[in-house]
Specification:
The complex is a heterotrimer of chains A (556), B (291) and C (520). Chain B contains 11 helices and no strands. By secondary structure, chain B is mostly helical. By secondary structure, chain C is mainly alpha-helical. Chain C is 38% helix and 2% strand. Chain C has a 3-stranded antiparallel β-sheet with strand order 1-3-2. Chain C has a two-stranded antiparallel ribbon with strand order 4-5. In chain C, a hairpin with a 2-residue loop joins strand 4 and strand 5. The longest helix of chain C is centred in the first third of the chain and has 27 residues. Classes of the chains: A alpha+beta (556), B mainly alpha (291), C mainly alpha (520). Chains A and B meet through helix 14, strand 17, helix 16, strand 23 and helix 17 of A and helix 1, helix 3, helix 4 and helix 5 of B.
Chain lengths: 556, 291, 520
């Protein structure tokens, strides 16, 4: 084996390359002039950011932290991309600006009217009395049509809005600033493009490290939260259609008063029939809304990021208690507006009520619909259980049509070097098979704990991919994935003597394998492309699943 | 920089041209209409031909039908190429290939029959071409029927979904589990298992009864758990229930095995013959040019 | 493959991905293509072997017709690699030996290959034999039964019943023979009365004698058909002026005998008692058909009137010849010239020998043209040219000549016309369908003559029994029907109506059409 006799300098080069690769997941690595080798805890302590943490923790985090020197004028990331990295500026300045004139129509991040089961478009916007009455500052920024929901099922990017910029405007960040963390922590796409102004030294922290840092130090949490409040929240609240028409200064005051709530999985947020004391905005994660029916509970609906909770209870006279029991599904971040603040808001700006009423009516309609259609709670439970709500691209196979020819799997295999990335097995709902193929989750837990950063957002939509040359086959992601969508493959080879880290050498080489949506190909996913009977679908959301169901019923 | 791919290109939620006229048999009314028009045009041309001339393979008309049929045949064959290689991905979805395969193939037979003027050819080679064309298209149509009928049977009749290739493996696993379950049970259960259950779990079984109806087939094979259950203590009953579940799954797997076998098996009467037909067609074209 | 692949929490606890190449390209599919491939190779081998090393019966599109069955063992008899069957291959048998062995020949195709008036296709574009004669369609398939659409590709009409052009004679109202004064009705009634016939058709057949094979009728000849009644011993010429210094006239037998001109041998065999001489006028009784004295005198008169006619005076025909008659005319010319040349040979005089050389030269030309199907029949040296009348003869003298001619030919003029000192030629044959065959024998047992030949009301005249009337009906001496008549029976679902029903290209020897007679 030639790899066995490689000279040490080559090994070093290889190591350098792998490490550099890992840190360039958000873009090309051409901008990095110099990348630190693996840092020790002491190295990290050199930066203010890490002073508060103990060495043990930092040692654990260090694979996910690097220090890079970027050349001037390098693009760090573009708006609309998903990053799992936050940047801390040590030296130099970074310029933020809007690059694209008209991205796929952005949506405000919080929207009262974003409900999962209301037919998109008409039903929701019907509740808005007069669109032009609420000219948001957001709309003024050459981003027309923000209120119009995108037609069909085409998902729109949610704007993180962590920097409030007009087109052509620039924002400069200097040493001691952190950026990109909001997108990374919340799974939101970046709202701006970042370019180094001068030669920069940046500490780059990947999501797993970032989460740990936030968890272990309240100082850090407060700092990040404060940044969030300052940079993002007020802007997010302002752009939220709900608050259109409210005084900007009032919203800025409100921003300081709202609570930022983090929920752990299955944590109860509200209990049905207890007094409703707050209005919630969902920052990330999912909430299950259920109601008592007889002895049991049925899931009425769920909330995903950007949706709101509490308009019925706070608005409708005579309803002062929670109508739903709300539990967090997985880690969930909420923005809490206390009842008093909310009432204050309504009192001062009665125009807000129009939109709230529309949302309340929609929510009530929805619970009514759910009670009438017994399949609905079942589907919601199923979707929450099996993580369909997480999914950005779920492979669904219509078993009524499928001839079990396995061409989807074969197509996948032939596209990926003979190794299929899913198997035609999985949960069945109605006559649909939810194949065990990556959902490309909103909140990909598989990303957490990858020691090399091989698994990452591919910077194309929500696609999560595994970089084969970085994967060391540890299996962490496969174990983390709640939906069995990642599988470890034996490559049939043994790690060569030049492999890094050293403990791998001589062991069986395994590699994590998961769907990458064939994002490099224009032909789309091979599974769908190769299905001769057109029974394999990639769906974006539960709504599309329901559409598929109704089309299928009609055609049966 | 990786180029951003439009989301719409990645996500595919609808059948390429599903409409409210689509149904299980006619997935795409557009293709169906195209096919209908093509058939009508062919028949009109043929009638005109018969009115104003003689229908003969070597007449200009007849030659035209023959060439059209041969071109269609080549086009139709691309479906096989696509499925076998999976490599022509950029050239469109397999679904389009299949639609063309089905409609084009049927049209091929029509044109081939028009080529010989709906008569039985005289020569040995030509007779075989004629016979194999009919065979291949007929078996293809049979395949369509199977492919429409069996999936529905499976999706409505059984609750499990099984990969055909994994069936032996799964059967083994069920048997191992069942044996482990029974090991610790009392004599009555072990005896029942040995006599009534073991033969059922032994191996994947092909039972044509499933073609007639799945639920009936399942019922007929289920060992008499009910009688035994009444005699057992509660603890053993739980085990028996578990065993019953395993047997139920195994029988459903059998149903899959039986029915999916037909889904795969019909290809054996279709594909090899079509390869021979392709060879003969090539030879026929050669002889026509040669002689 | 190792079984201990990643343990998972899926269905039956083990999620295994099929990573084998065998899975992506499954052996079942390979097997199907393999089996198919083997079958294909076997079948191809069998057929190829049969085609190239054996008799090729498997590859053949069908059995050869029984005529060609003997060649079934060797494809190369007819086929050349990557070419159509060339007509040369057919000609090996059909042209070279066809005439000798009596099989169908190419001769009948010359019609379509020559510069004939029917020519449509230039010789270079002439279709190959196989274009019309389809082989390999079964042992009993008649390969001469050429399908209509072969013809109709060029002849742009639907079929015999839709769009077939009218027969030429009917379309152009062409007179079959206007050169004979002949009333059908009179003859039919007279024949019926005299022979006491019950049936009109018997009267027809009294004159129209069938050919031995029954497909048609022999040409009407004076000796056979008219002689019984016409030119009996009582017939005589009127008194004809004898030539003298005063004016034109005929020469008496004695004078002719004394002159001893070539071709006057008949004078020695002619009975002088048939002539009555009253000085200055002579009269002959009886007069025969083609009476040599009458004809010789007529010829001499013509030579005076038309001095530049050359050899034309040998022929009893005018210059105005129907194109369809040209061939017969040629043949007559040959016969006449032959007789004439024979007589000339006995005279050693220089002028006579010069004339003989001229005649023999003409004979040569005419004979060659008759033989060569490609040569046009346009020689006119032996024909009368009306423009050539001697201008030195005054109008007065001309009238005297014509008076003499009129007197001389008076017995002839009962049936014939005389123009330009020539008895107008009567068409000897009756063929009017020149491009098609008509078999009378096949029709006469199904229908009556007068059902089709209904242009002249013979039946009606017979019914009224008007015997005396001179009903001039030479406008259609054959009384031919139009195509509509044929189409009443020959139509889809009734009698056959294909092209080759009538247009025979390979008739057998005994059945040659008139057209084909031109060629033999």
């Amino acid at each position: 084996m030639s790899a066995n006799v490689a000279d040490p300098s080559e090994t070093a080069t290889q190591q350098q390359r792998l490490y550099a690769d890992r840190w360039s997941s958000y873009g090309s690595n051409t901008g990095i002039l110099q990348l630190s080798d693996k840092l020790s805890a002491r190295d990290l302590k050199a930066y203010d950011l890490f002073k508060a943490y103990d060495d043990k923790l930092l040692d654990k985090l260090t694979p996910d932290i690097s220090v890079a020197k970027w050349k001037a004028g390098a693009v760090l990331f573009e708006e609309g991309s998903y990053l799992d990295v936050a940047f801390y500026i040590v030296e130099g300045t970074v310029n933020l600006y809007l690059q694209k004139h008209q991205e796929p129509a952005s949506q405000p991040i919080f929207d009262t009217l974003r409900l999962p089961y209301v037919e998109s478009g008409d039903g929701a916007s019907a509740g808005v009395p007069d669109k032009t009455a609420f000219v948001a500052p957001y709309e003024a920024k050459e981003k027309p049509d923000v209120q119009a929901k995108p037609k069909d099922s085409q998902a729109a990017y949610l704007a993180t809005a962590d920097f409030n910029l007009l087109h052509g405007e620039e924002h400069r960040l200097g040493p001691g600033d952190i950026f990109g963390e909001i997108g990374a922590l919340n799974g939101w796409p970046q709202s701006v493009t970042a370019r180094t102004d001068s030669e920069c030294t940046l500490v780059q922290i990947r999501l797993p490290a970032l989460q740990q840092l936030k968890l272990r130090s309240s100082d850090f949490k407060n700092w990040v939260d404060a940044i969030y409040r300052e940079r993002t929240l007020s802007e997010q609240l302002k752009t939220t259609p709900l608050f259109h028409g409210a005084d900007e200064r009032f919203i800025e005051e409100l921003t300081q008063r709202v609570g930022l709530v983090s929920c752990s999985p299955d944590e109860q947020v509200t209990v049905e029939e207890t007094p409703a004391d707050a209005f919630y905005l969902v920052r990330s994660g999912f909430l299950r809304l259920s109601q008592k029916v007889g002895d049991g509970e049925i899931a009425v609906t769920y909330l995903r990021k950007g949706m709101t909770l509490g308009e019925v209870e706070l608005l409708v006279d005579g309803i002062d208690t929670w109508q739903f029991s709300v539990t967090a599904v997985g880690f969930t971040e909420l923005v809490r507006i206390a009842r008093s603040d909310f009432e204050d808001l309504i009192g001062r700006f009665p125009a807000i009520q129009g939109r709230l009423w529309a949302a309340a009516v929609a929510r009530i309609k929805e619970s009514g619909y759910t009670r009438q259609n017994l399949g609905q709670p079942e589907l919601i439970e199923f979707a929450l259980d099996k993580g369909l709500v997480q999914g950005n691209s779920i492979l669904v196979i219509d078993l009524d049509v499928c001839t079990r020819c396995d061409d989807c799997v074969r197509g996948c295999a032939s596209t990926h070097g003979g190794r299929p990335r899913f198997v035609r097995e999985g949960d069945r709902y109605d006559n649909f098979l939810i194949a065990r193929s990556c959902y490309h989750c909103e909140d990909p837990v598989c990303l957490i704990g990858c020691p090399t950063g091989a698994i990452r957002r591919a910077n194309v939509g929500e696609v999560v991919e595994v970089a084969d040359d970085l994967c060391i086959g540890c299996g962490n992601c496969a174990n983390k994935c709640p939906y069995d969508a990642i599988v470890m493959h034996d490559t049939g080879e043994v790690w060569p003597d030049t492999a890094l880290p050293e403990w791998l050498r001589g062991k069986d080489q395994k590699v994590a394998s998961k769907c990458d949506l064939c994002y490099t190909s224009d032909a789309g996913p091979a599974c769908v492309n190769n299905c001769p009977h057109s029974c394999a679908f990639r769906i974006n959301s539960i709504e599309e699943f329901q559409q598929l169901q109704s089309v299928d019923r009609a055609q049966r | 920089m990786k180029t951003a791919v439009q989301k719409t290109a990645i996500y595919q939620t609808k059948r390429p041209d599903a409409s409210r006229w689509s149904n299980k048999w006619v997935q795409s009314p557009l293709w169906f209409m195209g096919f209908g028009i093509a058939v009508a045009v062919c028949l009109v041309v043929f009638v005109l031909n018969a009115l104003f001339g003689r229908v003969h393979p070597s007449s200009p008309w007849g030659l035209g039908y023959g060439i059209a049929a041969a071109v269609l045949f080549v086009g139709v064959f691309f479906y096989g190429v696509k499925r076998r290689t999976m490599q022509v991905r950029a050239l469109g979805r397999a679904w389009y290939y299949l639609q063309f395969h089905v409609y084009g193939g049927t049209l091929f037979l029509l044109l081939a029959l028009m080529h010989v003027g709906f008569r039985v050819p005289h020569g040995v080679l030509t007779w075989w071409l004629w016979a194999l064309s009919i065979w291949v298209v007929a078996s293809g149509l049979l395949g369509i029927v199977l492919q429409k009928w069996i999936p529905t049977l499976l999706s409505t009749g059984v609750t499990t979904e099984v990969n055909y290739d994994r069936i032996p493996e799964l059967t083994d696993e069920i048997r191992e589990r069942a044996e482990k379950l029974v090991e610790t049970s009392d004599y009555a259960v072990r005896d029942f298992y040995r006599k009534d259950v073991a033969p059922v779990l032994a191996a994947p079984q092909f039972r044509p009864i499933y073609y007639l109806g799945i639920s009936g087939g399942l019922k007929g094979q289920t060992p008499p758990f009910r009688h035994l259950r009444a005699m057992l203590p509660t603890e053993e009953r739980a085990k028996l229930n578990e065993l019953e579940d395993l047997v139920g799954t195994k029988l459903e797997i059998d149903a899959h095995y039986t029915l999916q076998k037909a889904l795969r098996g019909w290809l054996y009467v279709h594909v090899p013959v079509s390869v021979v037909l392709a060879a003969l067609l090539g030879f026929h074209i050669f002889t026509v040019l040669y002689y | 493959m190792q079984r201990d692949r990643f343990r998972h929490k899926g269905f039956f606890s083990r999620l295994q991905l099929p990573v084998a190449k065998k899975y992506v390209y499954p052996s079942s599919r390979n097997a199907m293509f393999f089996v198919g491939g083997i079958g294909a190779v076997l079948v191809l081998g069998l057929f190829s072997f049969n085609a190239f090393f054996q008799h090729g019966a498997l590859v053949s599109n069908g059995p050869l017709s029984s005529n060609h069955a003997a060649f079934g063992g060797d494809c190369s008899t007819c086929h050349t690699a990557f070419q159509n069957v060339t007509s040369d291959k057919c000609s090996v048998c059909h042209e070279k030996f066809g005439d000798e062995v009596g099989v169908h020949t190419f001769a009948s195709h010359y019609l379509y290959r020559s510069d004939d008036f029917t020519r449509v296709v230039p010789a270079a574009n002439e279709p190959a034999c196989f274009g019309c004669h389809t082989e390999h369609v079964g042992r009993d398939a008649p390969i001469t039964a050429v399908a209509d659409d072969n013809c109709l590709q060029c002849h742009g009409f639907g079929s015999f019943n839709t769009g077939h052009p009218e027969f030429d004679f009917a379309a152009d109202s062409l007179l079959d023979d206007g050169n004979l004064k002949f009333p059908h009705t009179l003859h039919v009634n007279q024949v019926r009365d005299r022979k006491d016939l019950v049936d009109i058709e018997q009267a027809c057949l009294y004159c129209h004698n069938a050919t031995p094979d029954g497909t048609g009728f022999q040409p009407i000849s004076f000796d056979r058909n008219c002689d019984t009644c016409h030119l009996t011993t009582s017939d005589a010429t009127p008194w004809v002026t004898v030539a003298s210094a005063e004016g034109p006239g005929v020469l008496t037998l004695e004078t002719l005998r004394a002159q001893q001109r070539p071709g006057s041998l008949w004078t020695y065999y002619t009975n002088p008692n048939e002539f009555q001489d009253r000085g200055g006028a002579v009269r002959k009784s009886p007069v025969y058909h083609r009476d040599p004295w009458v004809l010789e005198n007529l010829r001499r008169l013509r030579q005076i009137l038309y001095p530049s006619t050359g050899l034309a005076d040998l022929l009893r025909a005018s210059g105005d010849v129907d194109p369809r008659d040209v061939r017969s005319l040629y043949e007559e010319a040959v016969a006449t010239l032959d007789t004439y040349a024979e007589e000339l040979r006995s005279s050693p005089e220089r002028e006579v020998q010069q004339e003989l050389a001229e005649v023999e030269d003409l004979l040569d030309v005419v004979r060659r043209r008759l033989r060569d199907p490609y040569a046009p029949l346009d020689e006119t040296r032996f024909l009368v040219s009306p423009a050539a009348r001697d201008t030195s003869i005054s109008v007065e003298e001309g009238r005297a000549f014509e008076r003499v001619i009129d007197q001389l030919t008076q017995p002839c003029q009962k049936c014939h016309y005389v123009e330009e000192a020539t008895i107008v030629r009567v068409k000897a044959d009756q063929g009017n369908l020149i491009r098609a065959e008509f078999n009378h024998g096949a029709h006469i047992i199904q229908t009556r003559c007068l059902d089709c030949h209904s242009a002249i009301p013979i039946r009606q005249a017979a019914a009224t029994n008007t015997t005396a009337e001179w009903a001039e009906d030479n406008a259609g001496i054959q009384n031919l029907p139009s195509i509509a008549k044929c189409q009443t029976c020959h139509t889809d679902g009734k009698a056959s109506n294909t092209c080759v029903t009538c247009h025979l290209f390979h008739p057998d020897k005994s059945q040659h059409s008139n057209l084909l007679q031109y060629l033999e």
